Structure formats: structure tokens, C-alpha cells
Amino acid sequence: MWVLGVTGGIGSGKTTVTNLFAAHGIDVVDADVIARHILDQGTPALAAVTERYGTEALQADGSLNRAWLREKIFQQPDEKDWLNALTHPLIREQLLAALQNASSPYVILSAPLLVENNLTRYCDRVLVVDVTEATQRQRTAQRDNVSASQVEQIMQAQASRTQRLAAADDIINNDGDKILLAPQVAKLHTQYLRLAQSADKTTTKGDEADQPSKS
């Protein structure tokens, strides 16, 4: 399967972009969605969190108190390291399984920490959804109703804009109106179909070359 990695800092509009690719029939494996379900009720990961922090980490219904945990790990970096060590291997396992099960001409691996967690090694090409840091701050504060200091903490925990752009094969600028995204996605989709088809032909030829001679 030919894999397109899509990433962008918080508030960049990465999900909006991947939804546009999905409208073209492309499967999207979203690391954020998988990460959320890793800590669902009844999972071993949630049991480990409860054992470490007690019922303070839970809502009244027994589900994870995500706001409490988010504040905890931002205040105590060691706790963030512990949580990452618990969840990242589980997330990676599910990501790879979902990529293998994709059925579209190519598949998107969407991850805000694509660069930081070295998920680029699973990608044939990387697309960065880019905005200025000022846009990130404004959109995140409005969307998530969080303080400016918490937005800064989140941004500091992610790769810098420079680091993301250095890993990019393609860039979509999303500082402007959302209406400008669809034509950019359509153009890139055509390009990726061609690249995926070309890679598939190369793989097929390689497989044929490995077959024993029938003579």
C-alpha cells in the first residue's frame, strides 16, 4: 500500500484537509482517533492509568477524565513520558494494522506527531498542512476554548514549523479561506494516484522477476 503521511501543527486544519481527500474515496487512518480509543473504558491502557493515578483520573461514569490527564502531563513532563511509553506502542500497532487493511488506491496516515514520533518511516510521501504560528494560536484558542498558556504548551510539545516543513514533500498553505483548499487537494490527489499506480507497477514487476523460471 502506498502511504501518504499528512501532518500539521495544532490548529492547522489537518482534519479539514484529510476530509477532502476522503471525499475523493481515499481511506484515512487518523492517529488522533486511534489514540482516543486506546484509553476507552475497559481497555488495559485505562486500567494502567487508573492504577497509577487512582479514580481522580476518571469521570463519574468510569471513563477517562481527559481534561484532568491533559493538565497532569503538561504540568509534569515525567508523567507525559510515562503515558507515551504506555500508549505509543499500542497506537503504532493499531495504525499499522489499519494501513494494511486499507482498500483505496493509496492510504493516508494522518498524525499531528508524524515527524516527532518518526512515523514518516511508514510513508512514501509527506504532506504538511502549514499555517503561521499566529494562526495556530488564534484558531486553537477559539476552537478548544483553552488559555493562551496551554496553547503555547501544546505547540512546544510538537515539532516546530521549521522541522515539519523540512520533512515535507508537499505543502498546503491553510492561512487563507477554506474554500482555497479543495482545488489544492484535487490537484495533489491526481498526483498521488499517479505515484501510487507507478509504485504498484514497479512492485508487480519486481514480484514477477522473483518468480522461478517456467522454462
Automatic annotation (TrEMBL):
UniProt pathway: Cofactor biosynthesis; coenzyme A biosynthesis; CoA from (R)-pantothenate: step 5/5
Transferase among keywords: yes
Catalytic activity from the UniProt record: 3'-dephospho-CoA + ATP = ADP + CoA + H(+)
Location of this chain's protein in the cell: Cytoplasm
Protein's GO biological process: coenzyme A biosynthetic process
PROSITE patterns per UniProt: DPCK (PS51219)
An annotated GO cellular component: cytoplasm
Entry EC no(s): 2.7.1.24
Annotated Pfam families: CoaE
Keywords: ATP-binding, Coenzyme A biosynthesis, Cytoplasm, Kinase, Nucleotide-binding, Transferase
Listed GO MF terms: ATP binding; dephospho-CoA kinase activity
Binding site for ATP: G11, S12, G13, K14, T15, T16
Function: Catalyzes the phosphorylation of the 3'-hydroxyl group of dephosphocoenzyme A to form coenzyme A.
Family per similarity comment: Belongs to the CoaE family.
Protein name per Swiss-Prot or TrEMBL: Dephospho-CoA kinase
Origin species: Pseudidiomarina homiensis
Gene: coaE
